[in-house]
Design a protein that fits this description.
The structure is a single chain. This protein has 7 helices and 21 strands. The chain has 475 residues and is α+β, with helices and mostly antiparallel strands. The protein has 2 domains: 39-122 and 136-282, ABC-type transport auxiliary lipoprotein component (Rossmann fold), CATH 3.40.50; 302-474, Porin (Beta Barrel), CATH 2.40.160. The strands form 4 sheets. An 8-stranded antiparallel beta barrel has the order 12-14-15-16-17-19-20-21. Strand 10 (285-287) and strand 11 form a beta hairpin.
Amino acid sequence: MKNIKLFLILLFGGMLGGCAVHLKPISVTPAKLGEPTIINSYLRALPEPKEKIVAAVYKFRDQTGQYKSSASGVTWSTAVTQGATSMLLKSLEDSGWFITLEREGLSNLLNERKIIRSTRENFSSSDGHNLPPLPPLLYAGITLEGGIIAYETNLVTGGFGAKYFGIGASTQYRKDEVTIYLRAVSTQTGRILKTVYTTKSILSQLVDVGVYRYVKFKRLLEVETGYSTNEPPQLCVLEAIEKAVYSLTVEGIVDKLWELKNPEDINSPIIRDYFKEKEQTEQLVKLDERGKLMPRKNFFNSAQVVSKKWGVGGNVTAQTYAGDYAQPELKLAGNFFLKYGLSSRFSLLLSGGGGHIADRDYFTAKNVHVDLRTMFYLLPKRRLSPYITVGGSLLNFWTKDRQGIEIYRQRKYGGWKPAVISGVGFEYFLSSYFGINLGIENYFSFTDELDGMVHGAKDDYPWNGRFGVIYYFGN
């Protein structure tokens, strides 16, 4: 048996190592063309302009002043790219709406033109005539200003992990965010024609799996593997800049700053998608009758989902217990529940279900339960909110040994035994109507007879780990 366990552990470790090699290739790859972002396809799909706009970009700067942090402290490397001007020029070119002029390297351009003029003055053409003068530089109708105005780190961090007898896995994640402002300025009057801003999240994730345990006397096995994924910050900055160009172009069409070649293209899908997104963004908040900000009903907010709403759902549970026997088994069970939101933080939940608890060698006990509890949400306005639950329950158990002989059955109070429930968990709101939850609960049963043996000073405590879905309806 020990050899089999050792073989399985080594096989598991080998599989983890193989996965790590597969997930982390070390072969050399040649240079390739840059991959377009999702927003780049929107830019290229914009309808044709009546006349292209001549635009100049002098400097699209990093205005955050932030330096990249590391484990040993802050480094002199900047947190975001310093090449945002080049990204903006490429985005303007891809849109098909702008003729971009070189202004960032204007001094280099003027010096080169001086060299050309000096050369032409000193040399004549083959027929003895002077060479014609250089054509004048093209001037811009608008200049584009702005920059990267914010780079926020650790907006959301979290993770999850579990270990059992030295075998475990964990995951961690982090969310950063970059913000872009872009404005169009008339070169004739200096008036700011339009200002837009966009944001883009930057996600990072780490997955780690490991084994650390003794497989034999003085034989320690240790295996570790894992991988991490990080969105490249420069690509996120590029996507935010492209979104700003896309937004500026469509906003200029709406405000009649520039025109479409075909006026009917105002109803094209690419522009209708922009209007739909803008409407959803503008409906994030509104003012109530007292002038205070409040979420709009057609925008998702978990506090509105829970508050004064009914919900129905079900759970798949895994039951075990802490009692007098040393080898409790994990048994599947289930329940259904009805839920009512008293406020954004508090809900009442009535549930009923059944299942089993058992020991590997000695007993099995069927049970049914009816629960009434309250749930307290710690982050009521987030999609993912941890909660604490407390309440009461009525339990009914039928305990038999492995030969099927009944060894315990609650006779008092009509066969029902009172219990106190306590637990913690998470609920994730998929939409305004659906949610999923994951939690663990303990039933304080006030009896030591559930497993058929009265021994020691501690009572028997059933435990539930549950995963469920819920549908919300009502107000």
